[in-house]
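Revision sheet: structure tokens.
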Amino acid sequence: MAMAAPGGDGAGSEPGGPRSEPGGPRSEPGGPGELHPRTGKLVSLSQGGRSAARAQPGQEFNHGLVLSREPLRPGRVFTVRIDRKVNSWSGSLEVGVTSLDPAALQFPSSATGLRGGSWVVSGCSVLRDGRSLREDFGPDLDVLGEGDRVGVQVTTGGELRLWVNGRDWGVAASGVPPRVWAVVDLYGKCTQVTVVPHEGGDDGDGGAGGADGDNGGEDDGDNATPPAPPPPPPVMAGGNNLPALPPAPPRPRPDKFPDSLDTPEGAAWAGPALSNEALLFHEKCGALIKLSNGHKTAERRRPLDEFNNGVVLTNRPLRDGEMFEIRIDKLVDKWSGSIEIGVTAHNPNSLEYPATMTNLRSGTIMMSGCGILTNGKGTRREYCEFSLDELQEGDHIGLTRKANNALHFYINGVDQGVATTLTPQVVYGVVDLYGMAVKVTIVHSHNPSDRLRRHNAILRAMSPEGPRRAPPAAPPPAAPPALPRLLFHPNCGQKAAVVNEGRTALRPHATDDFNHGVALSARALRDNELFTVRIDRMVDKWAGSIEIGVTTHSPAHLQLPSTMTNLRSGTWMMTGNGVMHNGTTVLDEYGHNLDRLKAGDTVGVLRRDDGTLHFFVNGVAQGPAAWNVPPNVFAVVDLYGQAAQATILEEGEVTSLSGDDADGDTPGSPESVPSGSPPCQGGSGTSPCPPGDLRFHRRHGSNAIVTNGGRTALRQNCRSEFNDAIVISNRALRDGELFEIVIQKMVDRWSGSIEAGVTAIRPEELEFPNTMTDIDYDTWMLSGTAIMQDGNTMRNNYGCDLDALGTGSRIGMMRTARGDLRYFINGSDQGVACSGLPPEVYAVVDLYGQCVQVSLTGATGPLDNSQAPATVTEKPCPLPSPAPGPCQRFHGRCGQNVALGAEGLGAARVSGYNHGLVFSRSHLRPGELFEVRIEALDERWAGSVRVGLTAPPPGQGPPALPPTLLELPSPPPSWVLAGAEIRHNGTPARHNYGVNLERLAVGNRLGLLRGLDDSVHVLVDGHDLGPAATAVAKNAVVALDLYGRVTAVTIVSGGRGQAGGGASAGPSPCASPCPSPTACSPPAPIAGGPPTFSGCHGKNILLSNGNRTATRVSSYNQGLVLLGQPLPPGRLLQVLDGFGPDLERVPVGTRLGLLLDGGGRLHLFVNGVDQGAAGGAPSPCYVLLDLYGQCRQVTIVAEGPDGGGPSGDPRGRGDVEKADVVDGMKESLCWAPPPPAGPRPQPCPYQALCARFTDLLLLPDGYFSPGPRRVRCFCARCQELRGEGPRDPAPRGDPAPRDPSPPLGWCRFGLRPRPRADPGGSWPKWPLAYHGTSAGNVRSSLDRGEIVPGPWSLLTPPAKAEAGVGGALRGSSAPGAVAPPLGPARLVLSPALPYAAMEPFASAVTFRVPGSGGPRRARVAFEVFVRPGSFRAGPPSLRPPDGLDPTELEWVTKEPGATVLCGLLVRVE
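Predicted:
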């Protein structure tokens, strides 16, 4: 029974007004009031109009408005009970009153849409006619649960009061008319309510009697203090684990940043100037500002033309503790810099708006980037770890001024701490839409759209155990209660489940889905509490594995993403061997790789009391991973990819981490060094370190971070800070000791890059400057190409340029025993940089500009030979050295038909013929080879694997990957090899490149090798096909398309620059060009085998093909190239080129040679004839070539029967390109024994011409017969030299002549027979015949091992008349005869070569040979064995040449496998 309130019933409040009845607030007589039958369109009433439910709660969130049947009586409390809620939406129940009669009301979609005299409480906000009156009133209605009760009451004085679970929360609004109806909105999560009798305490009028009665008015409507009701139950009826709201005066709210933007603790706006006006932008603003959306939104005009004049202020001063929050709606990429936010004491009505707020010199505090500016001057450079310049669209920024004058900034819900304690008493909020920032909107919690967007950007970080409002002060307990054991929270990912009483989390269908497996701890971690899980089960279908970390978000309110790395606030995760903060990688190389863990391994995470975050793998600490992590974080386990089940192990306290090194920790981390270790050389003696173990010192620049046990250093805020990141070695360098680092991460935002050197200043005494070149004593640095001593340049153009180095490059420094400083780039000594160094110097690295992260390699380096008697060149040419790096894996983002396995080493297309894109996990480093082996084919499809490069790497989100690699959008820049065609950004860049990928089979290897000059070579089975792309982006990753026939591949190499199993090495240009060949020390002689070119060459030379091919890539000179081995005495070096007295006028086919005899004389040979000798040749001597002018490329080839390669041409067949027909012939070198005594026969020029044409067909050597009888020329000259003549024709009527006439005028190339229809080997006894074909059909016929009908030409397009070639019909009299009918292909053969070589059987093609006097025509034909009985002989379809017997001149067969290829015939006209 309700008790009457002391202080009267309010009878004297208003003469003649209605009197309140004693007995407290009352409901309608006879029971609870009913709801009006007219409702929102989705509401249905029940229980006699006392219960209302919203239909389709899973699909709709609004149109749930209901009103009371009768107007409310003054002092009566209209109460509803929440019966049902769903979790699909944000927002919840809204209540209030309206003066609109429901009988004539047009119901809006929600209560906030009511106008014409309506007051609504939504969340913590109070609105009148849709405009905000207060944003910090009462409890948050959104967090109430099922069973909780909410009521509204209108007093006789026109005040609207809110009741929750029987407690009066004071006056929400005033000036309410006497005739109003109660409003209930079933919004968002709330789907059903029931009207119930009020179970409160005091009379509503009595509670308001201070306002209307004789006792005077209340001091503050927000803090009205009604008499205490009876004690409430300990828990709300809804059972939502939130403590019940006690019957006590409301206390200030806690200092948090919840979703409702409540006023923090200790905040109160005192004084008579209290304004309930909502925060909006002031109408007076910057010159380019345009306001919209009721002054909630500000936008800068002409954002692509102007970057400033975008200042806007709030319409009123900020109250103490009031949150001013904005959302970034639009950014542009044209400018640098971005939004700035803060407060100012200037009144917007009288302010002369500056171009930027940082120009004001009084009363202004702004956050710009990651620093704080007061009156335009920087007061805190490193206020927080976030930078406003890196925020994206949708991010939220807020600020609040506390009652103690402290100013706090919030970024995506995270309090960044105190920015200043000297904030003026009266301040306005300021936003400067500068640079990239174009459009922002003020966030109001009462707006449903704002609530939904904020819910996605700022996930609630409230602990489920923590109350929303602090209870009344109570004496502390004698001892703190023990925290419950660590368990998983039941709210987990969509595809996850929590079992085993909360100790185990698993993905039940791990083979069907690879994500949505997030699980959080049920409570926050204590300081120094270790959270450890054991991996129980894994699957091998996916790439990636378990991820672990912490988050500030509560599992009770978090909308779990597919993976935790998608969260953009309050989250730190270890994934693979990197660390990510809010979805951004902050450490690339950290600790053990989680993707390599197995079932039974353990991983853990711990937050120390100093705010550092540490990860553990199998109980071993991996070192500090993050700093300034806030307390009360929840542990997170993401069962991603292969990880299918994990169980929590017993928690424990950790006081010291053995894995941390004192020299590796940052300040504030406890030092943990093995006892008994000797002190560091040159150190203070208090910082022991293992002998010979170089690390980075714990003291470093303000922007630097040292982690990984002192082995890794990085610059934080790398996109907003470019300096203050100096790191130094933990001890002095010993004589001859190499200090080497590898560059692991770079950014393209700044100019300049890493600087390295030594200093004699001890780390304990060093005052770290902005850059190391600012120090003016005892310091030697290499900056770019300049050697600097004490800040002054003492030498320019040193051998290497540090600004030109990229990711993966290694830099080493050594102090020799002589006191010289030497630098090593990728292991190559760059010579003496300076001399006279003192005995004790420390290595120094300045992570400046583009360089962000480096790690120690631990290399010992070369021996110090500085005091040896032998002389050393000042700057020897470096030889290439592959960059170190982890083995490659496939990226987790792949085509929709691809399944990854074998820990990311294997990829298979499981369906269809496309959607098979896969990418390398990391970019291809200089000198690195990425090679795959083909594991499976599906002959149902056409096409084959495609390979290429693309930059940047694929992202994790939409858009979806295209079906094929050729459809990859551009940008990013990409190179693709499809078949034998190279495409750059979708445009064909080169045809007929190397081996056609469509001919690859199971077991073949395909690789990409990146050169040190940013060129990329394609390798097939270890054989380098030459440069395929140049000027490749630094961050390019390998892209592979499992298209058509190829369905599965496996990575077989992904680190070193040597093809596995092959003799091919990568391109090897010098790190810097050599001025002359003598500046390089030649390598040791090689006793046998073909020679190779030295890595020292002119700056325009590019080596490939295992250093056997040299190409001049630009200009006409700088093409010097040196053989790596001395010229052996008595052996001849031959060059295929023209020759004569003037080397510039040599005819085609002439051989040049150099021979060093025993007397030290150098002989010049022309076509095997000694032209004389020149004495005085040194021993040993090296062959020097100058690729000058017209000569562009030379290749060293193996010895052949004619002094060169196959076909009598001393050039490698695979090195000839189609472009050479026009651009000029390539020159080649070969070793050959000295010519015998006497004249040597001259090579046949016709044979060389036919061999030249055959080389243009790009046929693999494996198709041709080995041995000296591979090529046989049947020209008149060769027949005469052999003493052969034409044979008599075969007897008439013999259908199978066994020894036909020789193919006079043709050149025959023997083929390796591959019979398919006669495994017994009787095919050599079959009849011999000829088949004329086109040049384009040669390769396809050789691939199949039998004749393929149908013409096509690689050199010229086919004529229309060639439609019937290879299968001419009997009776056709012209090349354009009727096309053959459908059915098996008809092959036309002939025992007479002159008939088989007629048009259209053998189509002529045109080609050019430089220096031969114009274009030439060539025809090709096959010499075949035909199985007896498989063909039908008859008269010819065409008119035969004169002299041929037409009887049985044409053989026709339709049987497959009836022919065996034994020779390729070529005739040049």
